[in-house]
Amino acid sequence: MLLDQIDQEREGEQIDRALLKNVLDLFVEIGMGQMVDYENDFEDDMLKDSASYYSRKASNWIVEDSCPDYMLKAEQCLKKERDRVSHYLHSSSEQKLVEKVQNELLVVYSTQLLEKEHSGCRVLLRDDKVEDLSRMYRLFHKIPKGLEPIANIFKQHITAEGTALVQQAEDVAGNKVSIRYSEMLTSIAPQAESAVGSLEQVFVRKVIELHDKYMAYVNDCFANHSLFHKALKEAFEVFCNKNVSGCSSAELLASFCDNILKKGGVEKLSDEAIEDTLDKVVKLLAYISDKDLFAEFYRKKLSRRLLFDKSANDDHERLILTKLKQQCGGQFTSKMEGMVTDLTLAKENQNHFEEYLGKNPNANPGIDLTVTVLTTGFWPSYKSSDLSLPVEMVKCVEVFKEFYQTKTKHRRLSWIYSLGTCNINGKFEQKTIELIVGTYQAAALLLFNASDRLSYSDIKTQLNLADDDLVRLLQSLSCAKYKILTKEPNSRTVTPSDFFEFNPKFTDRMRRIRIPLPPVDERKRVVEDVDKDRRYAIDASIVRIMKSRKVLGHQQLVMECVEQLSRMFKPDFKAIKKRIEDLITRDYLERDKDNPNLFRYLA
Fold this sequence. Notes:
By secondary structure, the protein is mainly alpha-helical. It is built from 24 helices and nine strands. InterPro entries: Cullin, Cullin-like_AB, Cullin_CS, Cullin_homology, Cullin_homology_sf, Cullin_N, Cullin_neddylation_domain, Cullin_repeat-like_dom_sf. One of its GO terms (biological process) is jasmonic acid mediated signaling pathway.
C-alpha cells in the first residue's frame, strides 16, 4: 500500500503526504527511536521497489531520449527523491535512496549515455553545449569513478582538435589549404588578422584560443576538478610536442614571442593584450617537453632584439622573464636576465667611453664609435673570425682597447664583427647615399676606395674571411636588390672566379638604405648547441645520483636520471646509456664484475 502510494506520486498523481509521513513515523516510534523496524519493515522494500521502478524507466529513456534529455530527466528524478525524503521519508533514507536511483539511471547506462552517437559527450563538446556538460558533471561527480570516462572523452576530444590544428598548419605550409582551414582563419580574433600570413602566429594563436576555451570548460563546466585539469594537460602534451612543417613547438613559441616583443612585429596589440598573451604563452610552455630548446631559440631571438635595438618595450621583456622564472625556475632565465642587465651596463660603459674621448683628444677614433661590451657566458655563441679590418676601423678598435684597460686589466675583449653595423657614405654619380651595412660588408666596400676592380680571391685574401661568409656578403652587394657592386659574369650566384667593381651608376629614391645580408638558418646550430648542453646535463645528473647512491642498477639509474631532467627536456634512453659508457671510460663509474647491469661510483 505504502509503496503503491509512492509509485503513484512518481507518476504524477496527488497523494496524502501528511498521512504517509504519520504512518512512517509510527515505524520509528515502535522501535523506540531505533531504526530497525523502519529499515526492515519498510525501507528495504522501498529501496528495491525504487530500483525496479527506475530500472524500467531508464530502459525506455535510454532508447527514446537524447543524452541531454535523459540527463534532464535523471536530474529531475533525483531532485524529486530528495524532496520526497524531506516531506515524508526518514532522513536516514536519503543517501541510500539517492544511490539506488543514481545506480539505475546513471551507473547502469553510463557508457551508452556518454557514447550516444548523435548526442553523447563528444557531441556536447563539439557543439559547445556548456549547460548540458555542467549537468553531466553534476550528475556523475557523486558517483565513484563516475567522472573518469567523461574526463577520458574530454582528453580525446581536445587531442583530436589539437592534432587537427597541427595538420591544418602542415597543409598551409605545404600549400594544401583545406576549405575548413580557410573557414578557421576567418574566425581569428581581429587583433590577429594581420598575422594570417605567418605560420607560427596563426598556429600558436589558435592553440592559445583552444587552451582558453577548454580551460573555461574545466573551470565552469567541471568545477575546476583535478581530473579535468589532468586530462587537459595530457591532451595538450600530445599535440604541443609535434613538429609543424619541420619546426618544433619550442621554436614556434619562441618565434611567436619574438613577433610580439619586437618593433614592427606582425601583431599590433595593446600593452594589456601583450601581457595577457605572454601569460598564455608561458602557460603553453608547461606542456612542451623540450623547454631547453625553447630557451635557446628564445635567447637567440632576444639577443637580436637587444643588440639591434629591435625590442619594442623593456618592461615587456622583463615581464616575460619574470613569468618564465616563476614557471621554470631561476636557472632557466639566469642567462636571459644577464643579457638584459648587460645591455644596461653597456649603455653606461658607452657613456664612460664618450667621457674618456672628451678628456683625451689624442684618443679620437676618427669616426663615431659605439661598442657594446657583453658577458660571454650569458649570450648565445657567435661565429668569430679574424677579419682583417680596414685601417679606418683598426684605429677604432685600438682606441677602445686603451679605454677598456683603464677600467679593468683582468678581462679580455673578443670582437664579434659579424654582429656589428656601419653607416657609410656611398658617393655615386647622381647623389650620395648613406648605406647601413654589416661590418663585413663595410670592410668589403672600403676595399674599393683603393681599387677599381677586385677578384673574389683578392677580396678573400685582403679580408681573411671564410668562403661561406664571403659569398653571403658579396651576394648581398652584387646580386640582391641593391647592386652597389657590379659582377662579372652577371649571374645570380657568386663563384670564386668572379670579378667585382664599384657601381657608380647606382641610385635609389631614398637617401639612406639598409642592405641586409641573406638570412642564415640558425636552427641547426641551435639544435646542436642544445644537444651539447644536454650531454653535460645528463653527465651531471648521473654523477649526482651515483654520488648519493654509490651503487645502483642500470634501470633504476636511467629512471632517476629521466625524472631529474624531465623539467627541462625528455632525455632519450639511448643517450643516457651512451653517457654512462662515457663516464665509465672517464673513471667516474665502474661496472660490477659479476653483474654488468650494476654500477659503482668511483670517488
